[in-house]
Write a structure and sequence with these properties.
The protein is mainly alpha-helical. It contains four helices and two strands, in the order H-E-H-E-H-H. 43% of the residues lie in helices and 6% in strands. Strands 1-2 form a two-stranded parallel ribbon. Helix 2 (51-69) links the parallel strand 1 and strand 2. The N and C termini lie far apart (43 Å).
Length: 141
């Protein structure tokens, strides 16, 4: 991976995806994006480190670019939960990704227990983020 060129190409692809979502879903008003989990254990090329980490910049830049060029009717695009952590080295919030967290056949995709881990992170985000909790929780608080 060549940084930042590959991340810029990925940003452009993400922008195209958002535009497609908008055209196919005219009632789309908000969209949360998250980068992927750690890719350092992956057995095949294409989504290993540092690509998985550097791909986070593509999301960041896409959000910034989308905000700058937003027109009426565009969905609001923002960060969802940040899923990347540096493998087994815990982040400040304790998130880490062990080899055992991945499907053995490719060591890239989260296994069932890690899918639950990601689901819990998504749920926690939607319950606590000020822009999401009003429509995600029953009380809106």
């Amino acid at each position: 991976m060549q940084f930042p060129e590959d991340a810029e190409r990925f940003r452009d692809a993400l922008t195209a995806i958002v535009q497609t979502l908008k055209s196919k879903n005219p009632n789309l008003h908000l969209l949360y994006v998250s980068s992927r989990t750690y890719g350092g254990y992956a057995l095949r090329n294409g989504s290993q480190e540092p690509w998985a980490y550097e791909g986070g910049f593509a999301y960041k830049w896409m959000i910034e670019q989308w905000e700058e060029g937003q027109t009426p009717g565009d969905p609001w695009v923002a960060w969802g939960p940040y899923l990347w952590a540096n493998g087994a080295t815990p982040r400040s919030d304790g998130l880490a990704w062990e080899l055992e967290d991945y499907i053995p056949s490719d060591q890239m995709h989260p296994n069932a227990s890690s899918t639950a881990k990601v689901s819990a992170m998504l749920s926690q985000f939607f319950k606590t983020d000020p822009t999401a909790r009003s429509w995600y929780t029953t009380s809106g608080e």
